[in-house]
Structures are given as structure tokens and as C-alpha cells.
Write a structure and sequence with these properties.
- By secondary structure, the chain is an alpha/beta fold.
- It folds into three domains: 122 residues, Nitrogenase molybdenum iron protein domain (Rossmann fold); 105 residues, Nitrogenase molybdenum iron protein domain (Rossmann fold, 3-Layer(aba) Sandwich); 145 residues, Rossmann fold.
- The chain contains 18 helices and 14 strands.
- Helix 11 packs across helix 13 and helix 12 runs parallel beside helix 18.
- The chain is globular, with a radius of gyration of 22 Å.
């Protein structure tokens, strides 16, 4: 198989102060997806406060995540951190017998003192063998942006997955259940499921459904930030199906066609299966195109969704892209998306937040997509913003969510217009 020709669109690289959430944020949507998993963060009170506020968990609820809080004596090396961790895990498993997969999640504090959570996971898996599978991954914010927490989590799951030589298609990336069900129906009605032999979603809703992986496994990414997971799957012998990501009509149709081509499913089958949902998506998008057409949009780097969302907005909503910032760019993962952007697109990898803010003030875009920490200051200067984290928490994949996706960008513009009247 020939390697894909990488798009040669120019990329500007910036290195400076960054404004992003840490990878612990991914627990908020991961724990909702994997219904019998528990996420134990080994970190500080700050980690606990971040998760509690980000998830909006009520005081009387019993979520499937917690923080093993490191005290001053832990950081000073005066306590045996492994002994304390074993005690907490034992107590947790006694109290929560429903847990089938336990993730030990590293944080900035645990990594600074070099606490080896990989060895701790091996030790705890052995001591609780047959009862729970203990895995570990890093959610540290030292070098990552917040969506990379899912990438490292799924990478840990791939390493733990069993082997198979069965033919199958795996959809990789956490999706809301409603979106997963929609895609499952499309794979079934188009004949892809039958041709593939099996279609699995990764991560699964329950630990017992973790798909096995082998040389006859083909996988397609549903999320654009799974660079480590993609490479690990390839290392396990699986084949990556390159494609646009399933945002909007064009992206979702290309995504379905890529899966169909991988299993020799006829184009006519895809056209027939997608005809009705495409018609619904066209009708939904029509409500927002007038608001978005010609608007100057600026993406600050935050979620790693920026490039596929920019492609959707430019192609299907006629948005004028001023700058597309992305925290980290893997050209292998993003090659199809880059090929669909205008050749003169301004793409910036990394961040020097002061330099970017100066460019925003100079160019005065109609809408800036950015993190929470920058939104309020920009709004105070009269610049309309959109919280990028909302794009992760909201169902936006697939045909039936295309209108909802466009609305997320149209809403702040419409709100500003109503305030002016």
C-alpha cells in the first residue's frame, strides 16, 4: 500500500505562553461513556476542584471519578505514596463492587515527584486479579491540551485489548450514545456492518465489550485528537482508514464512503443509506447559513477540533477563516482535512497567547473560538467569543447534528445582534 501524499499547506509554528485546560478534563465525558469504569486521579486538591466544577456533580451524587489527594508529606517524600494508594484502592473497590476497570490517572503533582503509576497499576491488577482491571494514563497538563486526556486513556485501553484475527471495523473516539446509535444504524443499512463482519465502537460502553485487535482490524477515527491511539493501533497490526472527520454533511459522507471503500461496499449503498439524513441536515443548516455566511472567524488553539470544524464552516456555511490555531498538529491524522482547506489558509500550530491576542485586536474578527480563560477578557473588549470546550461536551458528529453544530457558532452572533436592536 502506498503512503498517502501529505498536504503541503504551510503551517506557522508558535512557541510561548499557552492557555489550555489539562487532560484531566477528559474524565468528564469518558466516565459518562464507560459505564463500569472508575477514574481515580492521583493529584492535588486543585485537580479535585477542577473535576468537580467541570462535571457539575451535585454533592449528593456518586460519580465514577475521584481524587486521591496528595498532601504536603507526599510531595516531600515523607510518606509511602504506593502504600497509601493501595489502601485507597482497596477501600474504593470494597465500596464500589460495580467497578470493572479502574484507571489510575496521573497529574502534574504525581508526575513531578515521579510516582510510577504504571507499576502501581500492574501491582493492583495482580492483587485484585479477576475482580478489576487496573490501567493507568497521564492527564497531566504540563505538556498537553485537555482532549489529549482521552488520547492517552484510549491508548492504555489499546495496550490492554486482547488479540483477534477476525475481520472488523472499529470506530475510535468517544461519542455520545445517541450519535453512536445513529452511526450503528448507518453502518447496518449501508451494508458496511455485514461486509466488515463486525462493527465495534471504542471505547465501549462497558469494559466487557472492549474489542480485540489484530491484523484484520480496520479502524476509522471519529475524533481528530487521537494521534497516540492511532499509532498504537497500527503498532498492534490494525489498519487506519484515513478520512475527513464526521462533522457536517461533507465530512460525514466522506467518512462513511471511506469506511465503505475499505470493505468494498458499493457507492450506491452509501447514497441510499445517507439520502434521508442528508436531506434533514440540509434543512437544518439552512437556518444558520445566512447568519454565518461571510463572517470572519478566528480559532484559538484549544481542543484540536479546530481544523475539521474550520473545514465544515468554510465549505458548508461560507465562513471566512482568518486564522486556525491548533495546539498540536499531526499531519498523518489531519491530512485529509488539510487538503480540503483553501491553500491560503492561515494555520498556526502551538501558541504564543500575547502574539495571538495582538493579531485578534488588529484584525477584529466577527467571532473568536477560544478557551474559557480568554473568552471573558475578549468579550470585555467587544469581541464576540465562543467557548471551545462546549464543542466537546455537545453532540456535534454526524448528519443529524449538523444543524446543532452550525447553531453553536451562529448563536453568539445572533445574541449580539439582538442586543444591538
Amino acid at each position: 500500500m502506498n503512503a498517502p501524499v501529505l498536504c503541503d499547506i504551510p503551517i506557522t509554528v508558535e512557541r510561548g505562553q499557552r492557555e489550555v485546560f489539562c487532560g484531566l478534563t477528559g474524565i468528564v465525558w469518558l466516565h459518562r461513556k464507560m459505564q463500569d469504569a472508575f477514574f481515580l486521579v492521583v493529584g492535588s486538591r486543585t485537580c479535585a476542584h477542577l473535576l468537580q466544577s467541570a462535571a457539575g456533580v451535585m454533592i449528593f451524587s456518586e460519580p465514577r471519578f475521584a481524587t486521591a489527594i496528595m498532601q504536603e508529606k507526599d510531595l516531600a517524600g515523607l510518606a509511602d505514596a504506593n502504600e497509601e494508594l493501595d489502601r485507597i484502592v482497596h477501600r474504593l473497590l470494597q465500596r464500589r463492587p460495580d467497578i470493572k476497570t479502574l484507571f489510575l490517572v496521573g497529574s502534574c503533582p504525581s508526575e513531578v515527584i515521579k510516582l510510577d503509576l504504571a507499576k502501581a497499576a500492574e501491582r493492583l491488577s495482580a492483587s485484585h486479579q479477576g475482580r478489576v482491571n487496573v490501567l493507568n494514563y497521564s492527564g497531566s497538563g504540563i505538556e498537553t491540551t485537555f482532549t489529549e486526556g482521552e488520547d492517552t486513556c484510549l491508548d492504555a485501553l489499546v495496550h490492554a485489548a486482547p488479540y483477534t484475527d477476525q475481520s472488523q471495523l472499529i470506530v475510535v473516539g468517544t461519542l455520545p450514545d445517541v450519535v453512536e446509535d445513529q452511526f450503528a444504524r448507518l453502518f447496518e443499512s449501508s451494508g458496511i456492518a455485514e461486509a466488515a463482519g463486525k462493527v465495534a465502537f471504542f471505547p465501549p460502553r462497558r469494559a466487557e465489550h472492549i474489542p480485540a485487535i489484530g491484523p484484520n482490524t480496520k479502524f476509522i477515527l471519529a475524533q481528530p485528537f487521537l494521534n497516540i491511539t492511532r499509532r498504537t493501533l497500527i503498532g498492534r497490526g490494525a489498519s487506519h482508514i484515513p478520512s475527513l472527520f464526521p462533522f457536517g454533511i461533507n465530512g460525514t459522507l466522506a467518512w462513511m464512503r471511506a469506511a465503505a471503500d475499505a470493505f468494498d461496499v458499493a457507492e450506491a449503498n452509501i447514497s441510499k443509506a445517507c439520502e434521508a439524513p442528508i436531506a434533514r441536515a440540509e434543512k437544518a443548516l439552512a437556518h444558520y447559513r445566512e447568519t454565518l455566511a461571510g463572517k470572519r472567524l478566528w480559532f484559538m488553539p484549544d481542543s484540536q477540533l479546530e481544523i475539521p470544524l474550520a473545514r465544515f464552516l468554510q465549505q458548508e456555511c461560507s465562513v471566512d477563516l482568518q486564522e486556525i490555531g491548533v495546539p498540536y498538529l499531526d499531519r498523518q491524522t489531519m491530512n485529509s482535512e488539510l487538503s480540503c482547506l483553501p491553500q491560503n489558509s492561515s494555520i498556526v500550530e502551538g501558541q504564543d497567547v500575547d502574539e495571538q491576542l495582538d493579531r485578534i485586536r488588529k484584525n477584529q474578527p466577527d467571532l473568536v473560538v477560544c478557551g474559557l480563560g480568554l473568552a471573558n477578557p475578549l468579550e470585555a473588549e467587544g469581541i464576540i467569543t465562543k467557548w471551545s470546550i462546549e464543542l466537546v461536551f455537545t453532540p456535534i458528529h454526524g448528519f443529524d447534528q449538523a444543524g446543532d453544530l452550525a447553531e453553536l457558532f451562529a448563536r453568539p452572533l445572533q445574541r449580539k445582534q439582538r442586543l444591538r436592536v
